[in-house]
Amino acid sequence: MELSQATDEDLMTLVAGGDRRAFDILAKRHLHRVYGQARCMVKRQQDAEDVAQDVFTRLWVYGPKWKTGEAAFTTWLHHVVANCCYDFLRKHTHDTKKVEIDENIAGTEKDQETGLIQRQKKERVARALQALPERQRMAVTLCYFQELTNPEAAKVMDIHIKALEGLLVRARKALRPVLEEMR
Amino acid sequence: MTEDDKIREKLKLLKEEPSAELLNRILTVVPHMAQVAPREEMSGFSLVRFFGEFRYGLAVKFAAIGMVAVMGFCVGHLNGPVSHQDSKIIASMLTGDFGLEDQNAESGFVF
Q1: What's the pLDDT score for residue A72?
Q2: The pTM is what?
């Protein structure tokens, strides 16, 4: 069977055995997912890239510990990303107080084409998201950005589904003024 | 449109593609790192593992033992020493020599 058509779980089993080609395919397949989640959790593009690299480093280094059948690969991957984000935020707690959005999220070159209004909207959403507490931000990212189901997100966050729903209710309440403003 | 859909729509604004440079960096740097071998499942009692686990939270363990010792000492002193009369009662309870007046009368110990 062609390696590029192999399932994530099969590729991960190969990664556990030190297969670099399997790792390449997994990285290409899931980088956007990992980076997207990290980008919502940390403020700067550079930080999100560092988190993404950390995730794939853990995936490779601790690959031999992977056990097939314990969890779906994507659930496990989201869990690793969540842990890497929490670790990063814990190391940079002094940065989390002030909500500063870097130039890249406020507007990259591509955004200049979409106009100033779009850029301002993006900046406002980013600010509102960054103002949420870590766990609420993670819940919003997993459920609304990554579009996981509530049970999946609860599993990733290692919490009860009711706890996740509570986080989402509080997050929605906090985001409501921003959404109203942006109508 | 529900509130959930609105949030989803707004969050789409934040979608960004990771740079190609990041992918290259990951693919060139990471696979050259050493992989961690999975730990063998340990079964049965192992002295090394016991001491390893015992060392976990050692300061708290010693602090708890010390606190219990101090509390025991304080409680002991608060109650005061047992009187001579009480000692006799306790001793008679322990030896079974308790409750009968005529028996105790011989020993001069009357209730």
Answers
A1: 85
A2: 0.68
CB A24 within 8 A of CB B27: yes
Q: What ipTM was assigned to the predicted interfaces of this complex?
A: 0.79
- Verify whether the Cβ–Cβ distance B14 to A147 is below 8 Å: no
Tokens of A20: 């670099």
| pLDDT band at residue B101 under the 50/70/90 scheme | low
Among the partner residues A36, A63, A179, nearest to B6 by beta-carbon distance: A179
Q: Do A179 and B3 touch (CB under 8 A)?
A: yes
CA distances from A180 to A139, A172, A176, B3 (A): 21, 12, 6, 10
Both structure tokens of B97: 């020599």
Distance, first Cα to last Cα, chain A? 50
Interface of A with B in 94-153 (CB under 8 A): 104-105, 108, 118, 121-122, 125-126, 129, 140, 144-145, 147
Q: How far apart are CA B90 and CA B3, in angstroms?
A: 76
